[in-house]
Amino acid sequence: MATNTENSGPRTLGKVRPHQTQNEALVFEKSSPGKRAYKMPPLDVPAVDAAALLGAAHRDTPGLLPELSEIEIIRHFTRLSTWNYAIDLGMYPLGSCTMKYNPRVNEAVARIEGLAEAHPYRPDSLAQGVLEIIELLQRCLIEITGMDAITLQPAAGAHGELTGIMLVRAWHESQGNARRKVLIPDSAHGTNPATAAISGYTVENLKSNAEGGIDLEALAAQVDEETTALMLTNPSTIGVFESQIHKIADILHAKGALLYMDGANMNALVGKTRPGDFGVDVMHLNLHKTFSTPHGGGGPGSGPVACKAFLEPFLPIPVLARRTGIDGPGTRDSGTKGTGTTGQLCWNYDRPRSIGRVRAFYGNTGMFIRALAYILANGPDGLRQTTEDAVLNANYIRAKLEDLYELPYKTSSMHEVVFSDKRQAARGVKTGDIAKRLIDYGFHPYTVSFPMIVHGALMIEPTESESREELDLFIEAMRSIAREVEENPELVKTAPHSTRVSRLDEVRAARKPILRWRPSE
Amino acid sequence: MRYLPKSPAERLAMLAEVGAASIDDLFEVIPAEYRLTHDLDVPRQQAESEIVDYFRAAGEKNATGYASFLGAGAYRHYRPVVIDSLVQRGEFLTSYTPYQAEITQGTLQAIFEFQTMIAELTGMDVANASMYDGSTGAAEAVMMAVRVTGRHKAVVAKTVHPEYREVLATYAKHQGLHTTLVGYDSKTGRIDLAALEAAVTDETAAVLVQSPDFFGVIEDIPAIAEIAHAKGALLVVSIAEAVSLGVVRPPVEADIVNMEAQSFGVALSYGGPFCGVIAAKEKFVRQMPGRLVGQTVDSTGYRGFVLTLATREQHIRREKATSNICTNQALVALMATIFLTVYGKEGIRELAEHNLAKAHYAAETLAAQPGAKLLFTGAPRFHEFVLQTEEAPAAWSQRLLDAKIVGGIELSRWYPELGNATLWCATEVITREQIDAAAKVLAAAPVEA
Fold first, then answer.
1. B280 touching A (Cβ < 8 Å)
2. Which of A48, A292, A377 is nearest residue B360 as measured by Cβ atoms?
3. What is the pLDDT of residues A254-305, one digit of tens each?
4. B129/B323 Cα distance (integer angstroms)
5. Which of A153, A186, B94, B417 fits a 20 to 30 Å CA distance from A428?
6. Do the Cβ atoms of B298 and A502 come within 8 Å?
């Protein structure tokens, strides 16, 4: 047997060795007139004179799209793909993003013809299959969150937040006062205050306590009759469960305010505890985080909103229902009239107290299919084991790194751990530098400089998808970087050293933005 | 569990290393009364083969093999197979928002190419990296016009997709944004220009129209722009059928274009995920919502791409951001980019012309049936048309379904004044045979007893 040289040798760093990547110009720069990657079938109806039919509305100058052959297109995008890091290549510990494995069966079932080809306005009678999928997913998510009702319409987490706060607003209005302000902890995601502002509320900042959690006294002092809700991430962005959660809910409810939960960190809770049981009134989920739908380089996501029964009348239209009779009360066919059979699933638009629509059609159905496939693959035992492994992995990293990296909050960690760069900063090395150096070791960086309550934060979320071996390699990389900071800080400050491009000039990009290609003069 | 890469022994060893006696120790911070002590009531763990069977059965139950004349904001076009083989590469599929530019140049360059293609097609200077879809994009585009102008009123054409208008209404309610609806000309199906002129004032932030509009009719964009601009309002043009841009003049007089790019190689998927995008004149770029990719150089002067102008965005500006959007539709935008590369400069025109020809034939053929006539013949159309029938649509649409054809969508739910009107769409995938078959069924009204 040959000696294993995988993890040694001068060109090896931890788990990686450099390999070649192909250069590739912009697709426009590769174009030349007359090349084709398509062929239209013969037209089986009479051709028309477009210019005559459209008159002044006819396009005389075509858009400058590229002209290439099929093999060049395959190479172009394949080459680009090799410039990306991805979960499929290794650990992607981006805190708060839950970069877990994206099962391939999800992709296969989302492409089944009867589902992928379904038009949103097809008659309900021809859509029973997809409606049953939606119904089962809704039932599973309601059970997982411990809530009473749900909408799958929001397209992503931030869109879910907006929908959730609109539900809260509609309920307050029904009580006679929309109220004025939303409380948001200083540790929150930026989407929370942006959402509150778009919903017409002023944002009031809530300072975290010494443990990085909600300060009950401060909360009690700040909540009043003008408080709409508290937007709380639980576990918080430092990965800590709010152990006083029931008291937080009580303080809010006593003043008529509601508890909104940002479900970004739900991967720490599934199967172990339910927000609906600990006092949450409304929350959103991120199917692209907790429920394994792919992140796709930045979407598509899906942000279902689950709520308690008293908020149900306000859910966006339409809501899924069962037909109570042929064209029975409260139902309307979603498209051309089909037969309305009692007991069939249908969309109900007759919801006078609804906040209205937040999106055309019904939401990112392709993501619903993937999320349900994930839930079915896991079952109750798999979902619980997933959560336990995610929390175990984060605690393992914490235990193995807390001697070298400053742990600003000693509270016990759930699914992610947040260090600070305090010790390394003393040598002039910041969290962003350590992150860039991790790239040389074959890892995607953690989340840098967030949450803002931790100066120089390193926010690490391994997820359940990492083996002990991969975690150990990550830990070794982080320990090695800590040594480099002591011995050769410049090496870290100028990282990465192994990538196609070195650090990019962001200031130049923003000062004189070049946001598109243009043909050279 | 097959997705979890740990043996029971490894779990125990790791627990020992973190100093926990059992996994429950790590969950002790959750108050005991809230800890679940039973299994979640969800279906049991299933084999991959069972999962495939379940979804296949659902797909079959959904009914396949129907010819469909449905459009109305979701369009069936042929999807070249290279799209799915490329977007399923793990490096695209399982990567995230390209915050770390050095190891996400693939996604960043592809988005830069997407932005360029969208700008080229729409006639705008710049385009963003995507929005959720056309409906939310329309609302965001109007809110952008509000920020640019500092005004708080919008004038909206009744021929904008009704569900887009509903979304705008939901957003507008909380922004102190007042909207006025302007009707359409009954001969052309275009916005009523006289009514528009009366509705636009010097308090109007935006005029929102759709072209081709919800009836498939192409608006007179230069005339609308003149009315909007005369009062200092911005013109926002929404495009629900992106393929139209292969043959329809782009709305170059618009200030902001909101587009649904689903037609560019994205499956219908019962309404999503789709791909919105906002394009605009360069001078408005700092008020745009969503992500933008820009070109720059690395420390050695080599070309590279980064997310840029982030000071507009929620993770920096929080409540002062231009939008709360974070995750967008990146992978769907990649599908559109590949689609546009496959068809290219000539192909997009040829494709659009095929759509034009199919719809022209379908409109003529269906309108020739007894009791049927076309509405809005006074203006050019793309690939949708409105058919008025003497017979109630509920009756003939059932006959069509029996013949495995899904006919046009009833308009009375949104436009009761149009009576028995239905909106039909014929893209390049519809065959002459299907059109002729639909006409035959339509003509076969049962004789009154």
1. no
2. A48
3. 999 999 999 999 999 999 999 999 999 999 999 999 999 999 999 999 999 9
4. 14
5. A186
6. yes
A46 touching B (Cβ < 8 Å): yes
Please state, rounded to an integer, the average pLDDT across all residues of chain B.
Answer: 96
Contacts of residue B241, Cβ cutoff 8 Å, sequence gap at least 6: B71, B75, B212, B260, B263, B382, B383, B384
For chain B, give every domain's residue range.
Answer: 67-78+345-443, 81-339
Distance CA B203, CA B114 (A): 35
Instruction: Tell me how close the Cα of B344 comes to any Cα of chain A, in angstroms.
Output: 5
Beta-carbon count within 10 A of B356 CB: 26
pLDDT digits (tens, 9 = 90+) for A10-46: 789 999 999 999 999 999 999 999 999 999 999 999 9
- Contact (CB, 8 A) for A333 and A346: yes
What is the spatial distance between Cα A10 and Cα B136, in angstroms, rounded to a whole number?
53
What is the ipTM, given to two decimal places?
0.97
Band (pLDDT 50/70/90 cuts) for residue B317 is confident
Subunit contact A516:B127, Cβ cutoff 8 A: yes
Q: How far is CA A83 from CA A22, A72, A108, B111, in A?
A: 9, 17, 25, 14
Rounded to the nearest integer, the mean pLDDT of chain A is 94
Whether the Cβ atoms of residue B110 and residue A157 lie closer than 8 Å to each other:
no
CB contact under 8 A, B248 and A59: yes
CATH of domain B81-339: 3.40.640.10
**Alpha helix segments (H runs only) across A175-281:** 191-198, 216-222, 245-254
Query: Taking the domain A389-500, which CATH number applies?
Result: 3.90.1150.10
Q: Would an 8 Å CB–CB cutoff place B287 in contact with chain A? A: no
Q: What is the pTM of this model?
A: 0.97
Q: How far apart are CA B360 and CA A160, in angstroms?
A: 41
How would CATH label the architecture of B67-78+345-443? Alpha-Beta Complex (3.90)
Residue B21 CB contacts under 8 Å (≥ 6 apart), including other chains: B15
Contact B132 A159 (CB under 8 A): yes
Q: How confident is the model at residue A337 (pLDDT cuts 50, 70, 90)?
A: very low
Q: DSSP secondary-structure letter at B368?
A: T
pLDDT value at position B93? 98
Summarize pLDDT for A176-234 with one digit per residue, the tens. Answer: 999 999 999 999 999 999 999 989 999 999 999 988 899 999 999 999 999 999 999 99
Partner-chain contact B308 A445, CB within 8 Å: no
Spatial strand order in the sheet of A258-262 = A149-151, A305-307, A282-284, A258-262, A227-233, A181-185, A202-206
H/E stretch holding A54: helix A50-54
What chain A residue is nearest to B42 in terms of C-alpha separation?
A: A140
**Does residue A396 surpass a pLDDT of 80?**
yes
Which candidate from A67, A127, A298 shows the least CB-CB separation from B62? A127
CATH number assigned to the domain covering A108-371:
3.40.640.10
Domain residue spans in chain A? Answer: 108-371, 389-500
Angstrom distance (rounded) from CA A68 to CA B187: 43
Whole-angstrom distance, CA of residue B55 vs CA of residue A287 = 18
pLDDT confidence of residue B245: 98
